[in-house]
Amino acid sequence: MRVSSPIPHKKARIEIIPLIDIMFFLLASFMMVSLSQVHMKGIKVNLPTGASGETQSKRDYISVSVDSGGNPYFDKKPVTYDELTAILARTHSENPDAKVFLRGDRDTVHGNVIRVLDILRSVGFYKIAFEIKSQAAVGVPGGSTGP
Description:
The protein has helices at about 15-35, 80-95, 110-125, 135-140; strands at about 50, 60-65, 70-75, 75-80, 100-105, 130, 135. A hairpin with a 2-residue loop joins strand 3 (about 70-75) and strand 4. By secondary structure, the protein is of the alpha/beta class. It has a 5-stranded mixed beta sheet, covered by helices on one side. A two-stranded parallel ribbon has the order 1-7. It is built from 4 helices and 7 strands, in the order αββββαβαββα. Helix 2 (about 80-95) packs parallel to helix 3.
């Protein structure tokens, strides 16, 4: 003979919604902790070479270079910083949406490249890309050209 209990028997169910809430909370917590652990300290890097450089179209662009002595060049033509400012101002008035590719020699002082960057921004250019060699072009084993 079977005696029934006054407590109703229900089948056990696994609720998934609270489990999903807990997983999202853990995910967000781990993301916040990992972001707070990023140290923004500079390390010694080799700027002229990069593995993730991507090839861009070089139509309608301006090339500004700085050699190892800190001398600026506008499209392979040596100029002074004052001449560069005048040429870039004239070029910006003709084509304000032009892209600028800034090339800095590996052995130049960082301040020389920053000086040219300041000149570019002062005349109104904001579409500026730094040209680098990809590791694959340099011949480093295991280097990739990116996507």
